[in-house]
Design a protein that fits this description.
The protein has four helices and ten strands; from the N terminus they run βααββββββββααβ. The protein is α+β, with helices and mostly antiparallel strands and about 150 residues long. The strands form three sheets. Strands 4, 5, 6, 7 and 9 form a five-stranded antiparallel sheet that branches. A three-stranded antiparallel sheet has the order 1-2-3, with helices on one face. The radius of gyration is 17 Å and the shape is globular.
């Protein structure tokens, strides 16, 4: 699987040339690019029409956050990822950075052990306070309980 990370203008041209965007998408995406000049496109697999735009400009605008656990191959632990995002010109746009690891699933009991200073890291990125509160509430709902 390739990971393509390109400035949006180049990414749009590539997606159009490969027939992975229709004219309506291109028009909407160009409008998005005008509003977010620092837009970057991540395309996890060059053979699929799946792409993820993100921009530092939206960090203060993000109003939603997808939070999920992810265990990577060959690791003995599971991290908790937060993906802040918002809708801009009809597209879901992620913050920059597009995700933060905000905790680790407790391997000595249950619940989540928060990543030290995760709130400071999000604040340093000028992340919207609404998203910080969403993550804080998620972590409070999964307190780490250790076995004795």
């Amino acid at each position: 699987m390739s990971h393509i990370l390109t400035p949006a203008a180049t990414g749009i041209a590539t997606l159009v040339a490969d027939g992975k965007m229709i004219a309506t998408d291109v028009t909407m995406f160009k409008e998005l690019l005008e509003r977010l000049p620092d837009l970057t496109i991540y395309q996890p697999d060059k053979d699929k029409a799946e792409f993820y735009p993100w921009s530092k400009t939206v960090n203060r605008m993000v109003d939603d956050c997808t939070i999920h656990d992810l265990k990577r191959p060959n690791e003995d632990f599971t991290d908790v990822y937060a993906w802040p995002h918002t809708l801009v010109s009809g597209f879901k746009v992620w913050s920059d950075p597009p995700y933060m690891i905000v905790g680790r699933v407790n391997t000595e009991g249950f619940g989540v052990v928060p990543t030290p200073k995760w709130e400071d890291a999000l604040d340093d990125c000028n992340m919207n306070l609404k998203v910080i509160r969403m993550i804080r509430n998620h972590l409070k709902g999964r307190p780490a309980i250790f076995y004795m």
